[in-house]
Design goal:
homodimer; Aspartate Aminotransferase, domain 1; seven-stranded mixed sheet; 13 helices; 17 strands; globular
Chain lengths: ~500, ~500
Amino acid sequence: MVEAKNLTHLFSDEANVRQPSPLKTAFKYYKDPNIVFLGGGLPLADYFPWNKITAESPAAPFARGIGAVPETAEETVVTEILKVQEHNERKDEVSLARSLQYGFTEGHPELLDFLKTHTKLIHKIPYDDWDIIQTTGNTQAWDSILRTFVNKGETILVEEFTFSSALETANGLGVNHFPIPMDDFGIVPEKLAEILANWVGPKPKLLYTVPTGQNPTGSSLSAERRKAIYKLAQEHDFIIIEDEPYYFLQMEKYTDDVSARGEQKVGSHQEFIESLVTSFLTLDVDGRVIRLDSFSKVLAPGARFGWYVAQKSILERLTRLHEVSVQTASGFTTSIVNGLLNRWGQDGYIDWLIGLRSEYTHKRDVAIDAVKKYFPLDVAHYNPPVAGMFFTVQFDASKHPEFATKYESDPLKVENALYEQGLAQGSLLIPGSWFKAGGNSNPPNKVEVVPGTENLIFFRGTYAAVPLDELTEGLKRFGAGAYKEYGLEQAI
Amino acid sequence: MVEAKNLTHLFSDEANVRQPSPLKTAFKYYKDPNIVFLGGGLPLADYFPWNKITAESPAAPFARGIGAVPETAEETVVTEILKVQEHNERKDEVSLARSLQYGFTEGHPELLDFLKTHTKLIHKIPYDDWDIIQTTGNTQAWDSILRTFVNKGETILVEEFTFSSALETANGLGVNHFPIPMDDFGIVPEKLAEILANWVGPKPKLLYTVPTGQNPTGSSLSAERRKAIYKLAQEHDFIIIEDEPYYFLQMEKYTDDVSARGEQKVGSHQEFIESLVTSFLTLDVDGRVIRLDSFSKVLAPGARFGWYVAQKSILERLTRLHEVSVQTASGFTTSIVNGLLNRWGQDGYIDWLIGLRSEYTHKRDVAIDAVKKYFPLDVAHYNPPVAGMFFTVQFDASKHPEFATKYESDPLKVENALYEQGLAQGSLLIPGSWFKAGGNSNPPNKVEVVPGTENLIFFRGTYAAVPLDELTEGLKRFGAGAYKEYGLEQAI
């Protein structure tokens, strides 16, 4: 048994003060056949006004693609969940009488079992006492993580450009942040090492990262970078929060050669699993990684279902917090998602994820093809993403003919002009500066700008949300705006 | 237009610091037909693996009772929700493509509309700029309320005996509390007035109360007491959080006369509505009440769906917090609950609530009948609840023959002996002291014990969770234990 390191010294005041409910001591008698239990305020399931729920979904292996509407019974899988489970029913089902009742803050065992098996399939976690508990999505999970580790006024590490909502979660809690420089491939470990070596004040307890298909940059950390970052976490005793909603939107590599596309298609489940980048979890000999996983990008955001993977002592504190805040995920979500996953099975779920990979690869290709075709590549730089929903196009603001004059050598003014020009042409991409983590560490640590990057600006686009023809049209329009703004002639 | 008072001076540091996401400014172009919007990281609904969800529920008016399993098509209402709504479909439906997508932190308009109409039917709110936003249940709502109003180290007012989980939510946040004395009928307004008049330190910003069918005491505040408490809220400028999960578990009055039971059955919807106790919301001329409503006790806890009713400026701050924490309720919950409610209609929902009233009245009657029959009423006192899931039986510890000797005049020792004796007899009720709010206001305010109540202890039972025969058996056993513990002879 390889045990995780004890990291309880990193808990926040809030986490340390939390007590389990005194009523828990009574609940050990809840199912005791010798005791009539009049202790719990649970409504009878007889009064839940749902007797049966049926859900129709595509059946594995999704031969016509995951987006195809099932046309035959063979292509359809029907999940039927009853209020009260019959004796002869599947063992892996969560009946409505159970899912719609109170309880199960950690999650229902049937769904947790599925997720644990799945986790073992994907990540080789090097220590034994890890576990999984459910969340209501990574946004809630991140809020709960902050409350469990960071006191007001303390500082966390974040990526230089990061998901603004995640930063706002921290800001609201009075948590300060410090940005780590990134390049096309995410966090630069050498920069992180330098920052930590020169750190002033108490060391940060957390690094928040979206390592795969990062939002907003679309970058993905290589296994080598992850190893280097993990080593720094060990040296400087911090916890890595890997927020991984896009992990299964890893794609085939982009190639200019259209005829060669599809050659990286995975042939088997094993090939698919091996194609996935090494997670921080897989490197986690200490138990200092908390992985935030979610169905939002692989099944549906509205499921509001995610899960932490972490060492048990950390999950215990998170459970205490969930008990007095979000309690648990929706029972409808639990019954329906669990019903579908167990009908698909582990293999069917992998088929689904392979289907996603194929869809996103194609969308990404269409987007990058359009950027190549329609953008002024003398001043613009693209970096085809290998994962996620986002791509970025970088511009050199200093190459704008009016940079020093009209825009007073301020790259943000060029950024805004490009944004407005895009809108005027009928296309919207998000300016990269909107995701910029300013940094307000306490006491102040110096934020260094990597020389040569001062005048680089970028825009975030997505290929996820729109049909392919619109995607191409939108990029054509934005490209035309960029040509116009830079005073360049468009060849086409 | 009657406007709510501006109460923004009561916001916490956390609420004051929250910013809306900068991406919101871009989202105004989201549905603009002239703009190709490449700004949002939303997955396509094509990839949501649910094409249709069907739910079977009892149909109004529930002639055979709300717990009866529908046997005919007439007794069944079928909610069928498609991924993409057809043009000819009902206007009040939330399709899966919408409910399972991101967005709608406030809630989907279709369901909010239903709830607003319902709220107007039940509460006459005296000011105009109130609104409703969804929560994921009252536990989450309470956590968000605390974060929005109370800074660490500040003090809130709570009922002397209160829902321990609600207290633990506050404790974790470093929020102190001060208990308000209660009697059989809830908070004693005169005591509250006295406490506030003599208050040392900054006045509390919040009073947390479960006014109807209180947990744990089962007490309900009369309209008169609510008026007096509301007046104090105005005088001392605090906000009333009315946590009302049990509001629709209001019952007919208990009567010893079995033949007279059922005479208070409501004959019409209007009669039902008039039978409900005046809510704090109905008295709220200032907009200083935040009502926490929930489906947990009227439909199912696992729906994880509730809502705030409050003035808009308060809901705006709560929305900012929800955006970076819970985000939104489950889309499955939204589509399914909304589908059912709109098929039932407002009238059908009232039928359901009337059905609940009837079920709970009967359960309560069975419980109180058993207490009367099996408990040593020389030392025990019961107070039939008029609402909720809970009843209490009070004991005078000083009447225990060994109070001064074996139990060293400590009422809690008698309480524990009764609890253990109950368990030995095969029945569990929860000791009242487990719900006792100790009080840790900062700076300290003196907690007074009402003279004559020092030696009173009580147990909380529920009639909600068990079938009627078990309920009677459990109370018979506990009563026998009490007779034994007090050394009294049982007549039966």
